[in-house]
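Sample entry as discussed:
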Amino acid sequence: MTNITSHQGRLPVQLAPVLLCLLGLLPACSSLAPQYSRPALPVAASYPAVTAGSAESAKSGGAAHAPNSASLAGSALAMPSDWQHYFTDPALQQLLTQALAHNRDLRLATLRVEQARAALGYQQAALAPVIGAQGGSSRTHVPADLSLTRQPMITSQYQIGLGMAAWELDFWGKLASLRDAARAEYLATDAARQAATLGLIAQLADAYYALREADQRLLLAQRTLVSRQESFRIYSRRVAAGSASRLNLTQVETLLTQAQALAAQLEQQRAAALQALQLLVGQPITWQAASSADSTLGELPELAAGLPAALLERRPDVRAAELQLQAAYANIGAARAAYFPSISLTASGGTASAALDGLFKPGSGSWNFAPSVNLPLFDGGRREANLALMQARRDSAVASYDKAVQAAFRDVANALSARHWLNQQVAIASHALAVQRERARLTQLRFDNGAAPYLDVLDAQRDLLSAEQQLVQTRRALLSAGIAVFAALGGAPQTAPDGAAHPVLLPTPRS
C-alpha cells in the first residue's frame, strides 16, 4: 500500500477511507483474457515405423542387419543429462565449451533475453504507483489594485510533501495482462536462446565430424597417391628398359593424376571445413588432424525417441511457440480492458506555510486528492481494430504453434529413418570395401602372371579408392543422423552461458 503522509507522519482522516476502499478492491480485479488451453497435437500419436527390409537380401550382400530404430519409438524417453554425456569426444567437448562462451549468434540470443527481461520489469513496475518528493517556494508581488488591502504586497509560500501522479488502478486487468504478455515474451525469448544453443551444439558437432571426415579422406587419398607415384616410377623404368609398353605407363599415369586431383580437392574441402568450425567456435582453434587413414570417426550413443507429446516439453522451439501463443492470449485481455473506464489517482500530502520556519509547525499540513475516470465515447473504431488485431495475432500464433509441432515431428521421423538406413548402408559399404580390396589384390596377381590386361588393374584400383572414400562418407552421414536425432528430440537441458539457471515457465493467468 502506498503511504501519503503529512508532516506529522499520519494519513489525513478524510483521505484514508477512500484510499483504503479503492486499494482493497484491487485484489478482486480479474483478467479479461480468454482462457488458455494448449491446442491439440496436429500430428500422429506415434512416429512412422521404419521397415527393417529383407534379412535375406542383407545376408546375400554380406551386410550385417541393423536394428530397427523405429522400435524404440514406443519406449520411454532416454536422453542424457547434458550434452557432455552424449558427445564424449574430448576434443569435441572442448570446442563445444569454447563455442558456448564465444559464439556471436549465441551472444546475440542472450542479449535478446536481457532485453525481454527489462521489458518485463517495465511492465511489472507499471502496476505500482510513482511516488515522488516535492518541494518548492515562491514569492509573488501583488499590486495595490489587486490587493484586498489596497496596498501593494509581497507574499511568500513554501511547501514540502510526497505525491503520486495519475496512478491507474487496474480494475479490469489491463496492466496485469500486459505484464503476463511481457512475461510470456520473456520466457519465449529465453526458449529461443535455448533453441539457438541446441542448434549451435548440433551445428558444431556436425562441422567437427565433417572436418574429421575430410582429414580421413585426405589421408586415404594421400596414401593412394604415394602408392601410385611409386607405380609410376616403376613403370617409367620398365618402359625405359623395354619390358612394358607405353600404353601401360599412360594407364598408370592416369591413376596418378586422378589421385592428385582428389587430394587437391580434399585439401580445399578440409580448409573450408576448418574455417566453418572456427566460425562456429567464435575464435581461432588448434586442430589436431588424424594420424591414421584407418582410424574411425567415432560413435554416438543410441537415443530412444519416446512419444510425440514429449516434444512439447523438450523442444525449446515448440516451447517458444506456445509461450508466444500465451502472450497473444494475454494481449487480447488488455485489448478487451480498453472498453472499460480507466480510473487514475493523483494525490499529494505534506506541509505548506507562508514562512520557511512555519513548515513544521502544527496546523501547516496540506493534502490533495484527485481521482479521475476516463472512458472514451468515440475513438473512430480504434479499440475494435486493436481487439481484432490481437485476435488475429492469436490465430497466427496458433498456426505457428501447430507448424512448430509438425516440424518437430518431421525432424524426429526423418532423423530416426536416416539413422536406421544409414546403419545398414555402413554395413554394406564395409562389406563392399572388403570385396574391392580382395578384387584389387587378385587382379594385380593375374596381371603380374600375364593372365589379365592392365586395364582390369586400373578399374580395380579406381573402384577400391572410391569404396574407401564412400565408407568414410557413409560413416560420417551416420554420425550426422545421430546428431540430428539428438537435436530433433530437444537435446538435453542447457544452462545459460553465464551459468544462470533458466527461468521457470509460469502459466498465463486464466480469466
Summary: Residues 187 and 364 are 51 Å apart (CA to CA). The longest strand covers residues 153-169.
